[in-house]
Specification:
The protein has about 260 residues and is α/β, with parallel strands linked by helices. It has three domains: about 90 residues, no CATH class; about 100 residues, Metallo-beta-lactamase, Chain A, CATH 3.60.15.10; about 55 residues, no CATH class. It has ten helices and twelve strands. The protein is globular and about 60 Å long.
């Protein structure tokens, strides 16, 4: 049995290699495996580029000869291969019993709408996937990502009664103390991004003009359509957050620091 914590490429890319296993994903994102047309609206393609671009993307990933993108997996054919089948769904709060091992599914939205952490109480271990404490910081750059939910999910997961926190990227296996200590700097990146944006908004700028500054991803990477998409959505979410906090105001289609 293969359990995908969420639908992002780097966590499903090799599903197709497990041809004798059953493939599972959370019930919220299962539609992505049943009909690939469910992916563009939540990953950000339709929000930034529109429905027509989404249709073209599906055609590109279906073709194994499509040239891959320079900095993102947007055109990787393994998207197509690894969303080809689904054998079952799991739900938040479900406890899956494998005999000697029980796996508790913990819903932790923010990174994606259906993002899940897998907790193994018998072993005092939890797989936290993309709540990963990497220096880049939290990633919520899909249309279904949410900054505030990301923060609350991190706070909830750091209080799980586990000894080992297994990350999905770079940081490896962390003790509870290491995870809780590292969480402060990890979440502080969100405020650092806010401050970067505020420093630009000493004068009124549109969303697109702020995006073009490359505050999240260096501008040289914007040549990749998905890197630009991630920058666009991240900046858009921060502008909305700053506006709700009354730290910026809107003048027509432009924003300025208060």
């Amino acid at each position: 049995m293969v359990f995908n914590t969420h639908f992002h490429f780097d966590h499903i890319a090799y599903n197709y290699l497990f041809d004798e296993s059953r493939i599972f994903i959370n019930e919220k994102e299962a539609p992505c495996f049943r009909d690939r047309r469910a992916i563009p609206p939540i990953i950000g393609i339709e929000e930034v580029y529109g429905k027509g671009w989404a249709d073209g993307w599906l055609q590109r990933i279906a073709d194994p000869t499509t040239e891959e993108s320079p900095y993102s997996p947007q055109n990787n054919h393994e998207w197509w291969l690894s969303t080809a089948r689904l054998d079952g769904e799991y739900a938040w709060g479900e406890v899956l019993d494998f005999g000697k091992v029980q796996m508790h599914v913990i819903g932790a939205p923010g990174h994606s709408g259906g993002f899940s952490c897998m907790y193994f109480p018998r072993y005092g271990a939890i797989y936290v996937a993309d709540l990963d404490l990497t220096p880049f910081g939290p990633w919520y750059a899909g249309s279904d990502g949410d900054i505030d939910l990301f923060i609350s999910s991190c706070r909830m997961i750091e209080n799980v009664d586990a000894e080992f926190f297994i990350t999905g990227h770079e940081m490896g296996i962390l003790s509870k103390k290491e995870f809780r200590t590292g969480m402060e700097g990890y979440l502080a990146v969100i405020e650092e991004r806010d401050k970067k944006i505020l420093s630009v908004l000493s004068a009124p700028f549109s969303l697109e003009e702020v995006v073009d500054r490359g505050l999240i991803y260096d501008r040289k990477y914007h040549m990749d359509a998905w890197i630009y998409m991630w920058e666009f959505i991240t900046i858009k979410k921060h502008l909305r957050r700053l506006e709700q906090q009354q730290r910026i105001s809107r003048i027509g289609d432009r924003f300025v620091a208060v």
